[in-house]
Amino acid sequence: MHASRRMIGLLLQRLLLLALVVGLWWYGASRVPAFVLPGPDKVLDALVRLVHSASFFNDLGATMGRVLTGFLLAVLVGTPLGLALGGSRLLARFFEPVLAVLNTVSSAIWAIFAIIWFGISDATTVFVVFMTAMPLILTNVWQGAQAVDRQYIELARAFRFSRTATLLKVSLPSILPYFFSGARLAFGFGWRVSLVAETLGSSNGIGYRLRQAADLVQSDQVFAWTVLLVALMLVLEAGVLKPLERWLFRWKL
Q1: Which of 46, 52, 70, 95 is positioned for an S-S bond with 130, CB 3.0–4.6 A?
Q2: Phi, psi at residue 205, to the nearest 5°?
Q3: The CATH number of the domain where 177 resides is what?
Q4: pLDDT per position in the chain (253 positions), as tens?
Q5: In sequence order, what are the residues at sequence separation of 6 or more whose Cβ sits closer than 8 angstroms to the Cβ of residue 62?
């Protein structure tokens, strides 16, 4: 009963916040030209036209496919590298400057390199997402591996656990929260930088359509795509990531 009241209260707060944002948006739109700030009604009409357009699902699928591909590659590369650095101080000291450089270089620079190397293709966006997400996952897994209590490792050795059993039963429960935190952050960043890459090096996708609408001063289309992106991220966060996090860490409850 208490949980239900809390959920209802939270929902009412979110609805109040949404009403406040829409109200301020409507007021601002009434004070400036539509090409500067289109009102919610114009953006809603533009969003309906987008959904019914012939290229909508193709553009949406292209962007999501590139983001997921780059993100999965980042997980496959960043996770074992993070475990390796976390398990070896020598490797960590040797490769730490490289990781600092990877975390410093901006996504826009990676996008320029990608266009030079891959041209106008899916590989450009995939590469930018990968180079943005991989260092984040690597760093978090590395930190998680360092946070594993050495006493538990020694206890596992005393019971003659294999390396695989030690990793799965001792290290993984400590590393998983760090990995999940890094993966969520990496996916969010990857989704955003994919739009930057698509504006520069793609002939379809959401980023390409945003650039096209901006070039034609179609502000309602730009806002419609933006609202759609925000809605998608909220659905992924509330419908996929949070339930997955609760399921993975149910043992903590």
Answers
A1: 70
A2: 100, 170
A3: 1.10.3720.10
A4: 566 777 787 778 878 888 898 889 898 888 888 888 898 889 899 999 989 988 889 989 999 999 999 999 999 999 888 888 877 788 888 888 888 888 888 888 888 888 889 888 888 899 999 999 999 999 888 888 777 766 666 666 666 666 666 666 666 777 788 888 888 888 888 888 888 888 887 888 888 898 888 888 889 899 999 888 888 887 887 777 777 777 766 655 5
A5: 122, 202, 204, 205
Total domains, the chain? 1
- Between CA 35 and CA 216 the distance in angstroms is 11
List the end-to-end C-alpha distance of the chain, in Å, as a whole number.
19
Tell me whether residue 234 is exposed, middle or buried, using C-beta atoms within 10 angstroms of its C-beta: 0 to 12, 13 to 18, 19 or more. Answer: exposed
Between CA 143 and CA 70 the distance in angstroms is: 22
Q: Residue 36 domain-assigned?
A: no
| Sign of the torsion formed by the C-alpha atoms of 126, 129, 132 and 138 | negative
Residue 40 CB neighbour total at 10 angstroms = 15
Domain of residue 155: give its range: 43-252
Residue 22 lies in a domain: no
